[in-house]
Amino acid sequence: MLQSELAAVAELARELRLWTVMASVHRLTEPNRPHNSLYVISDRGAVVTRYDERLLSKTKVSYMYSPGVSPVTFEVDGVRFGCLLGMEIHYPELFAEYEKLDVDCVLFSTSGTPGNTAAQAQGHAAVNSYWVSLSGPAQHSATAPSGIVAPNGHWLARCPTDDSPSVAVVNLDDSSDAAADAVTYGRPWRREARAGIYAEHQVIDPRSEDRTAAF
Q1: CB neighbours of 206 closer than 8 A, spacing ≥ 6?
Q2: 175, 128, 165, 166: which is closest to 149 by C-alpha?
Q3: Which of 10, 24, 89, 143 has the most crowded Cβ, counting Cβ within 10 A?
């Protein structure tokens, strides 16, 4: 039944010429547990890649799934995407990893929205200066409606909070007001700062070394 439903979605993606990212369980060879995954389906209806959740919850890794092993990126019309899933909203190092891989947008999907998931999505977008999509079930929309965060950390579009099935749509335009400064200045500067540019400006000074020096 699951295979039939997945195939139907892929066929509809082909008919609509619509790139589609869809969460599902991915079977492995027995006796291995399956992956918790995101299938990336092209506008021709073909699976072009798959992301497998790497940092699982204790329940998932103990009883349900085999963890994935690597990040996954793909490009559509010159826009580079990365994928994350499930509990991985709580791990900033995974979002930082995608920044190093030069993605323009991270697609994050979850079947639950514990805690401050939406706030974390905003934070990841702001500190990495890229777009972040948050996709979750409609029944959680009262506390964490799905939407897209711009590189400046502001929500550019959000679904309604009334539990209704809905879609959020944005243009991923790096020249827009919501993205230009973050992408043009913020992201390059943080990369430069992390590359060690401060070393030549550091000084040897007793008042610097003495942490108890008053005023």
Answers
A1: 213
A2: 128
A3: 89
CA gap 38, 83 in Å, rounded: 8
Residues 6 or more apart in contact with residue 130 via CB below 8 angstroms: 98, 99, 103, 104, 105, 106, 151, 183, 187
CA-angle at 46, arms to 54 and 17, nearest 5°: 115
Distance CA 80, CA 215 (A): 49
Q: Over the chain (215 residues), what is each successive 10-residue block's mean pLDDT?
A: 95 97 96 97 97 96 96 97 96 97 97 83 97 92 91 95 92 94 94 92 93 88
Q: How many CB atoms lie within 10 A of CB 31?
A: 5
**Helix (H), strand (E), coil (C) string for the chain:** CHHHHHHHHHHHHHHHCCCEEEEEEECCCCCCCCEEEEEEECCCCCEEEEEECCCCCHHHHHHHCCCCCCCCEEEECCEEEEEEEHHHHHCHHHHHHHHHCCCCEEEEECCCCCCCHHHHHHHHHHHHCCEEEEECCHHHCCCCCCEEECCCCCEEEECCCCCCCCCCCCCCCCCCCCCHHHHHHHHHHHHHHHCCCCHHHCCCCHHHHCCCCCC
pTM for the model stands at 0.92
Distance CA 167, CA 160 (A): 9
Cα separation, 72 vs 40, in Å, equals 10
CA distance 215 to 204: 18
